[in-house]
Design brief:
The complex is a heterodimer of chains A (386) and B (479). Chain A is mainly alpha-helical. Chain A contains 13 helices and four strands. In chain A, β2 and β3 form a beta hairpin. By secondary structure, chain B is an all-alpha fold. Chain B has three domains: 72 residues, no CATH class; 330 residues, ABC transporter involved in vitamin B12 uptake, BtuC (Orthogonal Bundle), CATH 1.10.3470; 41 residues, no CATH class. Chain B contains 20 helices and four strands. The chains are: A mainly alpha (386), B mainly alpha (479). At the A-B interface, α5, α11 and α13 of A face α10, α16 and α18 of B.
Chain lengths: 386, 479
């Protein structure tokens, strides 16, 4: 009786605080730590580079360039890093449950970006687009993309992966490659029939608020933050917090975690394993879709081929953080995004290398991690069982 | 009832007759002759030409597989295939060089598929960047002979076309070294990681080829290397073409390009022949058995004393060297090499060939190469041609009253090869993971549940023709 009353009394005050800490404060703090840590580390590296090569090209003092570009590089790095993190979550969630690389995830991302475009374009065709309030518009676009990509991921799992469960490792992987190629051309065919064009440009120029950047003045520098960058970061943070709550705070999330730990035992404990796997694909796919819509709004133009490079980079991010590890995907995505943004900003001054090799860089990172630390930054080493 | 039993008995007689070598052989000859006659009578100016040639040409190109599976004597099979390769196809090529072009492309892809089959089929290492080795071979020849202003050309240090045969060996060598260099760091990785990393390597090679025009121009960047050298045509080949022309009363306008194409055709046939022999010998050697052991169970293979890293590297190097040799031929044949020819879609198409045919089996891989290349280069392309031809005459599909003119211009079937490759991969993985012509050893593994004991003695003989045919039959009839 006493115990019951005490717990009843403390529900309102203490556990809400605890809940707020666990599901809101802690994830935000984690993201902040990752961002600040990676950005600081890279800034130090950039200054060291500037010390080592004071004048890589005649009349260009590297340290001045670093000073001037640093805030911009960090902001664009965080933006793209969050996109990578969100895609990487899809790889990681599926890997955690099925121990299988969902090669088609990059195309789920692509479908998200195309659906985002379609929603906006339809609104623009009917003339409603400028009238919608920015927040509502962004939320609707992201939700539609999430829904479409999530359902697509569930269908893909049902059609191409479930019949192959239990087959040798390479069999579902090859099927996933097939799905990936099939999806690219399916979207192309649909766009060819409906629009006869593959370059899908988001109708952002009709929106007044997109064109006016936020101005941030630090010292003598003014930094322009594009509203789309702001949307990407905000959207990513909100969805990531929601994911954290879903996986760690709900019954369904517990089911997913149970299945990822031991599928057979989870089945014996009364968890519907197939439904949990479908759910995982839905959540991972929805994140890929949201990332696609955010990416589309940020870059403006998408094509059916847009998935490959972000997909492989997000996979690199997932492996960098430790595949199967949700926090790791976040860390990996942010780190990779920042590194890439720094390279893009600074390699220009080294003519022999140039920006042309930045895509090669992601592959090199992937190969190096897989060789020297296959478990990633946060993962634990798992030996193959005989 | 009486009619039915008569029908049944007549069906049985037909079936028995078909199994007799004389009847089967006669039918085969008739089949090939009919296909040749139809192809011979097709007229390029006909509106429906793409459609007709799509129906007929595959029948001819697939005939070697029918010949091999037919119940006829070995020497007869050999004679028919030789006649097909050295008489019929060159003859059709003289009539219409696009057929010759198609067969050369099939040979090139068959060589690549056989090379990838060693890596994926024999050793079980999924390599998604296989096209990189092909690129290495192609660039090896192209860099030294291209008319583009690369370092080699600036110093006037170009190799003449007659060094081609030497460069085939050089291509083999260089590609094998690249294969070992790429293999060394990644072979410790587990299957699916290996796939992604090789994909990365494939893309890296492409990006490097795309960007290696600065600071020193090696590859001429994205513009590609043009005017690549070709091997000189031996005089007897040109004379032979002229003799055949006068003997058959053909009117060949382009003797020189045609004899060049014929030369490439014979080189490609020879290389494929060598690759088949090498692959077959390797498969039946201790090395091949070591690869099978690795493919089936790596841990068990180590425990049995298989030198894992050496064997994997050997598989990588062998597969790469095949691609290198084919790459040299490809560069010389196309006379143009650009990074775009070596994209991921090419790697996937070769993977699709290996998987459609049957991983690990040589005949299956060849069948896969023929099917996939024809789907891509004949069926899809002809579909596009046919749609364009119908669009030009404003054709209307009768019953549904659809104007072909309204077909979206971007929906051109020739550009939708990914759809085909993707579907092929998914469908094969779900319904026939062992491929259309499963490798005998693999089929035995899949049947293991039904049979009590699988005799290991059979597997070394797997390369021979007889067991394959006799084993396929009962299965097909039961199903």
């Amino acid at each position: 009786m006493l115990d019951a009353r005490r717990s009843l009394g403390s529900v309102s005050s203490r556990s809400i605080l605890e809940w707020g800490y666990r599901f809101i404060l802690f994830p935000i703090g984690q993201m902040l730590i990752f961002i600040v840590g990676a950005a600081l580390f890279l800034t130090v590296l950039a200054f060291l580079l500037a010390l080592a090569f004071p004048e890589p090209r005649p009349n260009i003092v590297l340290i001045d360039q670093v000073n001037r570009q640093l805030p911009g590089m960090i902001i664009s790095g965080i933006t793209i890093g969050f996109v990578y993190a969100m895609i990487a979550l899809g790889y990681t969630l599926v890997y955690g449950v099925l121990k299988f690389i969902n090669f088609a995830h990059s195309e789920i991302f692509m479908v998200g970006s195309v659906v985002g475009f379609e929603v906006m374009q339809r609104l623009s065709d009917t003339g409603h687009l400028p009238a919608w309030s920015p927040v509502f518009l962004v939320v609707v676009v992201i939700l539609m993309a999430m829904l479409a990509s999530g359902l697509l991921a569930v269908i893909i799992e049902r059609v191409a992966y479930r019949p192959l469960r239990g087959a040798p490792r390479l069999v579902p992987l090859i099927s996933a490659i097939g799905i990936s190629f099939f999806m690219i051309d399916l979207v192309r065919a649909v766009e060819a029939i409906t629009r006869n064009d593959f370059n899908l440009t988001y109708p952002l120029n009709q929106l007044e608020w997109v064109r006016s950047p936020f101005k941030l003045v630090i010292g003598e520098n003014t930094i322009n933050i594009r509203p789309t960058q702001f949307i990407v970061v905000l959207g990513a943070v909100v969805t990531l917090i929601a994911l954290n709550y879903f996986v760690n705070g709900t019954k369904l999330g517990r089911g997913i975690r149970a299945v990822s730990q031991d599928m057979t035992t989870a089945g014996l404990m009364g968890i519907n394993v197939n439904r949990m796997i479908s759910l995982t694909f839905f959540v991972g796919g929805a994140f890929g879709g949201a990332a696609g819509a955010l990416f589309g709004m940020n870059v403006g133009t998408v094509t059916p081929f847009v998935g490959f490079i972000p997909g492989i980079k997000a996979f690199t991010a997932a492996v960098l953080g430790g595949i199967g590890n949700v926090t790791g995907a976040l860390l990996g995505g942010l780190t990779l995004g920042l590194v890439e943004s720094f390279l893009n900003g600074l390699l220009v001054y080294f003519p022999a290398l140039g920006q042309r090799y930045t895509d090669v860089f992601a592959f090199s990172v992937l190969i190096l991690i897989l060789i020297f630390r296959p478990s990633g930054l946060l993962g634990e080493r798992v030996d193959e069982k005989v | 009832m009486a009619v039915k039993s008569v029908q049944q008995s007549s069906r049985a007689t037909v079936r028995a007759a078909l199994k007799r070598p004389a009847v089967a052989g006669g039918l085969l000859v008739a089949y090939i002759l009919v296909a040749v006659l139809i192809l011979n009578s097709l007229d390029r100016s006909n509106l429906w030409f793409p459609f007709y040639s799509t129906l007929t040409f595959p029948a001819l190109v697939l005939s070697p597989f029918i010949i091999l599976a037919a119940p006829v004597r070995g020497w007869f099979k050999g004679a028919l295939i030789v006649a097909l390769l050295f008489l019929i196809i060159p003859y059709l090529g003289m009539r219409d060089s696009s057929y010759l072009e198609l067969v050369i492309q099939i040979c090139i892809f068959a060589g690549l598929a056989l090379g990838l089959n060693i890596v994926v089929g024999f050793a079980g290492l999924l390599d998604l960047g296989y096209i990189a080795f092909f690129a290495v071979g192609a660039y090896t020849w192209a860099m030294f002979t291209s008319g583009a202003s690369t370092v080699f050309n600036i110093n006037g240090w170009l190799v003449s076309g007659s060094a081609f045969y030497l460069f085939i060996f050089l291509g083999i060598f260089v590609a094998a070294i690249v294969g070992i260099l790429l293999g060394l760091p990644v072979l410790r990785l587990r299957g699916d990681y290996l796939a992604i990393v090789t994909l990365g390597f494939g893309e890296m090679i492409r990006v490097i080829a795309n960007n290696l025009d600065q600071p020193i121009n090696f590859t001429n960047g994205s513009q590609g290397l043009f005017g690549v050298g070709r091997p000189p045509v031996p005089f007897f080949l040109r004379d032979g073409v002229l003799t055949v022309e006068s003997a058959l009363g053909l009117s060949i306008t382009n003797v020189d390009p045609l004899s060049q194409q014929l030369l490439f055709y014979f080189i490609a046939i020879a290389i494929i022949g060598i690759i088949i022999v090498v692959a077959r010998r390797l498969d039946n050697s201790p090395i091949g058995r070591a690869w099978t052991a690795i493919r089936e169970d790596e841990v068990a293979a180590i425990a049995m004393g298989v030198p894992l890293v050496r064997m994997k590297l050997l598989a990588f190097a062998t597969g790469a060297s095949f691609a290198g040799a084919i790459g040299v031929i490809y560069a010389a044949k196309q006379t143009f090499v650009s990074p775009e020819s070596f994209s991921l879609i090419q790697s996937i198409s070769i993977l699709a060939m290996v998987i459609v045919g049957g991983m690990g089996g040589i005949r299956g891989t060849l069948l896969g190469a023929v099917i996939v290349t024809m789907l891509n280069l004949l069926v899809l392309k002809n579909l596009s041609l046919q749609i364009n031809a119908l669009r030009n005459v404003d054709f209307v599909i009768p019953i549904i009253n659809y104007h072909i003119r309204d077909w979206p211009t971007q929906l051109e079937p020739a550009k939708y090869e990914r759809l085909i490759f993707g579907l092929l991969l998914i469908v094969m993985m779900i319904f026939r993971p062992a491929g259309l012509l499963p490798e005998p050893r693999r089929r035995m593994e899949l049947q293991e549940k039904d049979e009590e004991i699988v005799d290991e003695e059979i597997s070394p003989e797997a390369g021979d023709e007889q067991p394959v045919v006799s084993a396929v039959r009962p299965d097909a009839e039961q199903a």
